[in-house]
Write a structure and sequence with these properties.
This protein has 503 residues and is α/β, with parallel strands linked by helices. It contains 17 helices and 20 strands. The strands form 5 sheets. Strands 1, 2, 3, 4, 5, 6, 17 and 18 form an 8-stranded mixed beta sheet that branches.
């Protein structure tokens, strides 16, 4: 199909937003407020929520304090506890979406199959499993924790029992009294295993590398606190600011002075001693790398669960999966009824990147394969005009709330679209010099950080050994850098007279 035929047979919109999690919803709300109301939000799942819609495993909860885990423009006075469980977060997102007046432009159960920049039409042609769209701008908010990463284990397809990823939990599976294996000991596993331990006959936990786990300072909010938050929002904003400041104070330990992580390691080791009685088991769950090199986890129940009589921590490498169990390198085979895979997500190789084709005919995945993920200010990409990537390269956090970053990026892209309107620009695209300068500076700042020097191999790092995931500084610094759309760092194309007439 030719470009002209595509344009005539597609739905034409100003902006197409991919993903209905925090990023997509925030973009929809802020575009609407800015008068950019001609947009469509495409979501592959059946509701808003993104990560919080699909991750419904037992014990699912946020490890960022509740007071900071909401939009700044839509505080929630009704959080029940210091760390919110998944159902509350999903209910919050749904309520904000309903009250925003934007849900009429959301299209659910629809996945993007490919998005191609049409240089002649100066639009993105986006094919989905539903319709095809022609959009002036493409805003991708599909997130880095959206596509489960499955382990490459010999024979896993032969297993005859129930098998599923933590992010695709099978609530129909019978777990009570079963023999269950959990592969992985990351953020999801530390929440899942204590819940499974309560009902299973046996839980085998397969660990490749232990994580640093500190106590979860959990508490419930009282009825009085919630009433005050509801009637005096300024009090909740003050509480939110205090939480934010406390989290930001940790950044130097991550970025400039990794030795400060000694304090975190001491707290984590005390957490181990309090939760585990067996000295040998304590040794096996104690990391040998610096705290913070991998994501620091929080839990009060992880170590007591591992110390339970019906849980076994297995540290021998998995050799293969059989139809009825798992075989490890020591030759042991443990028979199981259910296999839970908690092995994380595609983060540095985001699947969406392979479906987006830019100005020169290469996909975003092909472009990033050369040097790793690179984007100007983590948001725009050279070779991809009018393209905005939420939670893009080096915008994720190891210490605070991603919603803060999402709001900062949305403010930047909204200002970009406002600038395009006022200056009658058809396209904006960061120069290669601006993008390279930004990315090189970020990677230089990564060198002294604990993520680089801490002695571990984490999912923060790509195949080139670069940390293209995290932001190496305070969040308020990135917000300041995103506070103004710097047109001088972009190649632009003005609206032609023909385009202006049809716009």
């Amino acid at each position: 199909m030719s470009s002209s035929e595509d344009i005539r047979t597609t739905t034409t919109v100003d902006h197409l937003i991919v993903g209905a999690g925090f990023g997509g919803l925030c973009t929809a709300i802020k575009l609407n407020e800015a008068g950019e109301s001609d947009f469509v939000v495409i979501e592959k799942d059946s509701d808003v929520g993104g990560t919080w819609h699909i991750n419904t495993y037992p014990g699912a909860a946020c490890d960022v304090p509740s007071q900071l885990y909401s939009f700044s423009f839509a505080l929630n006075p009704d959080w029940t506890s210091a760390f919110s469980p998944q159902p509350e977060i999903q209910a919050y997102i749904r309520r904000v979406a309903e009250e925003s007046g934007t849900l009429d432009r959301f299209v659910f159960d629809t996945a993007v199959t490919d998005a191609t920049w049409d240089q002649d039409a100066q639009r993105w042609l986006v094919r989905t499993t539903g319709a095809t769209y022609a959009a002036r701008s493409l805003i991708v908010g599909s997130g880095g924790l959206s596509e489960p990463k499955l382990p490459d284990i010999d024979g896993i397809d032969s297993f005859q029992g129930e098998v599923f990823h933590s992010a695709r939990w099978n609530h129909e599976a019978e777990l009570a009294g079963k023999r269950i294996a959990v592969i992985g000991t990351g953020a999801s596993a530390v929440q899942i295993v204590p819940e499974l331990q309560k009902v299973a006959a046996r839980v085998d936990v397969y660990q490749r590398t232990p994580n640093w786990v500190i106590p979860r300072n959990e508490r419930s909010f009282t009825a009085l606190e919630k009433a005050v938050f509801r009637r005096l929002p300024v009090v909740q904003r003050a509480a939110r600011a205090a939480v934010y400041a406390g989290l930001e104070a940790r950044v130097p330990a991550f970025t400039r002075l990794p030795a400060l992580m000694n304090v975190v390691e001491a707290v984590a080791k005390r957490n181990i001693r309090r939760g585990i009685t067996d000295p040998e088991l304590r040794k096996r769950v104690t990391p040998t790398y610096r705290a913070g090199c991998k994501r620091i986890l929080i839990s009060n129940t992880w170590y007591p669960a591992l110390d339970s009589d019906n849980v076994e921590l297995v540290t021998d490498p998995i050799v293969k999966v059989t139809p009825s169990g798992i075989v490890t390198a020591d030759g042991a085979e443990r028979e199981i009824d259910v296999l839970v895979v908690a092995t994380g997500f595609h983060v540095t190789d985001q699947p969406m990147a392979s479906h987006v084709t830019g100005r020169d005919g290469r996909t975003l995945a092909e472009t990033w394969a050369e040097r790793g993920m690179r984007a100007y200010k983590g948001t725009t990409v050279h070779g991809f005009p009018n393209y905005f990537h939420l939670v893009g390269p080096n915008t994720a956090l190891g210490h605070s709330s991603m919603i803060f970053i999402i709001e900062s990026q949305v403010a930047y892209l909204t200002e970009a679209l406002r600038t395009m309107r006022s200056q009658r620009l058809a396209t904006v695209e960061p120069t290669i010099e601006a993008q390279d300068s930004w990315s090189d500076r970020v990677q230089a700042r990564m060198k002294p950080t604990v993520w680089t020097t801490g002695g571990c191999a984490s999912w923060y790092l790509d195949e080139h050994g670069n940390n293209t995931t995290l932001w190496p500084g305070q969040t308020f610094t990135l917000r300041r850098l995103l506070s103004r759309f710097d047109l001088d760092q972009y190649d632009v194309r003005p609206v032609e007279q023909r385009e202006a007439v049809s716009a």
